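Lab notebook, bench 4. Still working through the backlog of constructs that have no structural model yet. Next entry is a single chain of 121 residues. Request: give me the structure tokens for it.
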Amino acid sequence: MSPDELARHLTIDLTTTGRRSGLPRRIEIWWFRVDEHFYITGTGGRRDWLANLRSDPNGIVHVAGHDILITAIEVDDHAERRRVLSDPQLSWYSSQEQLDQLVERAPMIRLVFTGPSHRQT
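Model written out:
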């Protein structure tokens, strides 16, 4: 699938490896594309998917009948975080008053595709 085709799907499933159990953990989550990169973010607070990816950054994105291997890179650069969180497609996500708090506290990862897209069987 092309990046444009992937970006049309806002809801994906993400499989991570449980940091304690070592078992696959699959959740439904939103993603979005900014500046040709795909990101996952959320409001502040504990997120098991993030803790799992900190332990093992490799995972699988399940989207539109495809499984795509990924490596997650946690985004801690404030300029990148502000650029992503300021993107117009995320306007529903935060008001201007909340932007500074989100830049400081929101979990955020950038996804790097590490394997070809495979059709789910």
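Notes after review: The helical segments are 3-7, 48-55, 78-85, 96-105. Residues 3-116 form a domain with the Pnp Oxidase; Chain A fold (CATH 2.30.110.10). Flag for follow-up if needed.
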